[in-house]
Design a protein that fits this description.
β23, α18 and β24 form a beta-alpha-beta unit. This protein is of the alpha/beta class. Helices cover 42% and strands 24% of the residues. It is globular and about 115 Å long. The strands form six sheets. Strands 13, 14, 15, 16, 17, 18 and 19 form a seven-stranded mixed sheet that branches. It is built from 26 helices and 29 strands. It has six domains: 108 residues, PAS domain (Beta-Lactamase, 2-Layer Sandwich), CATH 3.30.450; 107 residues, PAS domain (Beta-Lactamase, 2-Layer Sandwich); 76 residues, Signal transduction histidine kinase, dimerisation/phosphotransfer (DHp) domain (Helix Hairpins, Orthogonal Bundle); 158 residues, Histidine kinase-like ATPase, C-terminal domain (Heat Shock Protein 90), CATH 3.30.565.10; 139 residues, Response regulator (Rossmann fold, 3-Layer(aba) Sandwich), CATH 3.40.50.2300; 120 residues, Response regulator (Rossmann fold, 3-Layer(aba) Sandwich), CATH 3.40.50.2300. α11 runs antiparallel to α14, α16 packs parallel to α17 and α22 packs parallel to α23.
């Protein structure tokens, strides 16, 4: 006899011993994610989690079991529970998507006390991987069922097990018959080929492709491409033969076009195959670094070692994010959903941010990095700042990557046309790198391609950057091209159409500075830097001369008695005599009547003390921009505007992020994200309060609306999402509720997502993962 548990019979074999149940506990520990108990109202009363699983149990005891399911699945779960309670079935087993985004298989059994339903008990198993595979199989099945190709599957004896509807549509036979007469639809010669050499090839190498004919029921003869390949089991044994037949009538009618298309397709397949291979390497490499550095850091008690590991993991994670962004951008381009978001921005400031990052890489390779920004280029323009930055950054990164040590990389920006507010700019990135052949140049801007397959092995990269850049430039109304000579270097040039912004002008020299009293000498061993420096100074109507080293400079100083130089721009690192020694000589000759501004591509912290002792008045770093030079002159010549130089330095430092008079409310449901926000904002003196969901945020704001100066609103939160929370805050009534800046924080960064944020009443948007600079810029913008 078996033990009966509400409709479930436990069968015991005759003569068998009573089963030892102790091993069962080990099974559920290993193969389930949690065990759960709930009362008669389906409230969770107890939950035991398998620590090796992924089921999240925080704060769910006391809540309804329905809250564990995604909102779209809750009605289904409610029906299953109702059937279980009604004793319509002895147990319930169902698959459901959880709030955490994972799929679980629940197995629940009702239990009774004195015949009265008292609740349910059960276990959950994470089947996310299986569910996703089933979804993938479903859409693959749909493609086969709805496709126009002839698809069939046979066993190893030749018995046809499956024929898709496309096969009947091609041949004209009745699909209700279930099978096709293979001896009638193929010529004898083709049958002999596929049963002989074709099958031999499949069994030997896994696939075979041949050309032939297909006889239709109405007498038509269709030229076909016949593909067969083997389907293998886990033991690598062929168990099925799949056939795919395509009608190639159109292609044969246009044989020349077919040949071209075939070559293009083959090239694309090879490129995509190589691309996937590169992606495997490109993604695994930083991921391995991230995991490795984190593990090393966790196992170390040395703070410096931990910091080093975190720094390396941070660098690798940013690299990985860049790869993911490239892949997402390419997918949007191929889906024709790539769009630009236009805004007004300080073009020169954007260039500084780009070149600061590029300069770090150039310094590491001891390269000369020069920026030539024509003075007549508008300081403020109207276009997509992020995408323009992406193109320039990609070109600079490539130039630095493919240029050997001690080479030169240049960024040249000039205005080529202007009609009213419409401006056309030309941006050129040149290098003294390896160069590109004419054949390689033809493939550069194609998706999934690099100039040469060896490039990924030697230099890395996804091969997507230039294809993405080309699409961005085209959307900006421009074009992009390359000029290159092998062994000499390359120039990547692109144009774009933009608008200059009325009322926005570039930095100017102080009105109180008498230009006629200024004579400048610039000393730099780089000819390109000297030419650019002279170009900018002459555009400012300043008298300027240049020297190629310290000895040349001293000679020019000695012959300038009629009108001595009074401002010196001196490069720190020069052959023969460095900038510090030259400064000492200048101060010995001119004394306090001279101002020395030191320039360097490197961080000057290590030599600042020595340079200041030698007489250096001010420091600037390469690459040089017009505003950098103008501000340096203004700072040095306008020092009398401050009571002391200490006050001047204090004034300059006040542009840092100090928000001590402000309080913000951050609505964010994930604890670790709240910790990250606290860490990013720790040094800003900003007062921060947190709400774990949209409902709490609304309640906190309604209680004291005057307390907060800005709200950072996550979008996807439990109880109430960011959209609804924003709408309720805007509807509260007080002026503060209508006017307080609300900035969305979300990983959804597509155009439609941003528009949805704005429509709900938000003022702006910042993407996840949160970039500290972007966050500070948003705060500065709205405070």
């Amino acid at each position: 006899m078996g033990k009966i548990i509400k409709g479930i019979t436990e069968q015991i074999a005759p003569g068998a011993k009573k089963m030892d149940r102790s091993w069962m506990a080990s099974f559920w520990e290993v193969f389930t994610d949690c065990a759960i108990e709930m009362d008669a109202k389906y409230r969770i009363t107890n939950i035991r989690r398998n620590t090796a699983g992924s089921f999240i149990t925080a704060d769910i005891v006391g809540k309804s079991f329905l809250s564990l399911a995604a909102e779209k699945d809750r009605k289904f779960v409610a029906r299953e529970l109702k059937k279980l309670k009604s004793e319509a079935q002895p147990y319930a087993r169902f698959h459901v998507l959880s709030e955490s985004g994972r799929y679980y298989r629940w197995t629940l059994i009702a239990y009774y006390r004195k015949g009265v339903f008292s609740g349910c008990r059960g276990v959950a198993v994470d089947i996310t991987e299986q569910a996703l595979k089933e979804i993938t199989l479903n859409w693959q099945r749909a493609i086969i069922e709805e496709g126009s190709d002839f698809v069939s599957i046979a066993d190893m004896e030749g018995n046809v097990l499956y024929t898709n509807p496309g096969a009947f549509r091609i041949t004209g036979y009745d699909p209700t018959s279930g099978t096709l007469p293979m001896e009638l639809i193929f010529p004898e010669s083709h049958l002999q080929t596929i049963n002989g050499p074709g099958m031999e090839r499949v069994l030997k190498s896994g696939s075979w492709t041949g050309l032939g004919e297909l006889f239709c029921l109405d007498g038509r003869r269709i030229p076909i491409e016949h593909n067969m390949f083997s389907i293998k089991n886990e033991q690598d044994e062929a168990i099925l033969i799949a056939t795919i037949i395509r009608d190639i009538t159109v292609f044969l009618d246009h044989e020349k076009t077919l040949e071209t298309a075939r070559r293009v397709a083959e090239s694309a397949n090879i490129a995509k195959s190589e691309f996937l291979s590169r992606m495997s390497h490109e993604i695994r490499t930083p991921m391995n670094a991230i995991l490795g550095m984190i593990n090393i850091g966790l196992s170390s008690d040395d703070i410096e070692r931990k910091d080093y590991c975190l720094m390396r993991a941070d660098s690798a994670s940013k690299h990985l994010l860049g790869i993911i962004n490239d892949i997402l951008d390419m997918s949007k381009i191929e889906a024709d959903k790539f769009e630009l978001l236009y805004s007004v921005f300080d073009f020169e400031k954007t260039l500084k941010n780009i070149t600061d990052m590029a300069n770090v890489r150039a310094v590491e390779k001891q390269q000369e990095f020069i920026v030539n920004l024509d003075y007549d280029v508008p300081e403020y323009i109207f276009t997509d700042e992020l995408r323009l930055s992406q193109v320039i950054t990609n070109l600079l990164t490539n130039a630095i990557k493919f240029t050997p040590e001690n080479g030169t990389v240049m960024l040249n920006i000039r205005k080529i046309e202007e009609f009213g507010d419409d401006v056309s700019l030309q941006i050129e990135v040149s290098d003294t790198g390896i160069g590109i052949t004419e054949e390689q140049q033809k493939r550069l801007f194609m998706s999934f391609n690099q100039a040469d397959s060896s490039i990924s092995q030697n230099y890395g990269g996804t091969g997507l950057g230039l294809a993405i850049s080309k699409r961005i430039v085209e959307l900006m109304g421009g074009e992009i091209w390359v000029e290159s000579i092998i062994g000499i270097g390359s120039k990547f040039i692109f144009t774009l159409k933009t608008k200059k912004v009325e009322g926005k002008s570039r930095a100017q020299l102080y009105d109180k500075i008498n230009l006629r009293n200024i004579r400048i000498l610039a000393v730099d061993d780089s000819e390109e830097t000297r030419v650019y420096f002279k170009h900018v100074m002459e555009a400012l109507k300043l008298e300027v001369d240049v020297a190629y080293d310290g000895y040349h400079a001293l000679k020019m100083i000695g012959s300038s008695n009629d009108k001595p130089f009074n401002i010196f721009f001196v490069d720190w690192h020069m052959p023969g005599m460095d900038g510090i020694e030259l400064t000492r000589r200048i101060k010995e000759i001119n004394g306090s009547n001279s101002i020395v501004i030191m320039i360097s591509a490197n961080d000057l912290d290590a030599v600042e003390k020595e340079a200041t002792a030698a007489g250096v008045d001010h420091f600037i770093t390469k690459p040089l921009f017009p505003s950098t030079l103008i501000n340096a002159i203004n700072t040095c010549m306008g020092a009398e505007l401050y009571e002391s130089m200490e006050d001047a330095h204090k004034q300059q430092s006040e542009c840092g992020y100090d928000f001590h008079n402000y309080t913000i409310l951050i609505a964010e449901d994930i604890e670790i994200n709240r910790e990250i926000m606290s860490a990013i904002l720790a040094e800003t003196n900003l007062s921060i309060e947190y709400a774990e969901n949209g409902m709490v945020a609304v309640t906190m704001f309604e209680a004291d609306p005057e307390k907060y100066d800005l709200i950072l609103m996550d979008i996807n939160m439990p109880v109430m999402d960011g959209y609804e929370a924003t709408r309720r805050i805007r509807a509260l009534g007080p002026v503060k509720g209508r006017d307080i800046p609300i900035i969305a924080m979300t990983a959804n960064v597509f155009r439609e997502d941003i528009e949805k944020c704005i429509e709900s009443g938000m003022d702006d948007h910042i993407g996840k993962p949160i970039d500290a600079t972007d966050l500070f810029m948003q705060l500065c913008k709205h405070f």
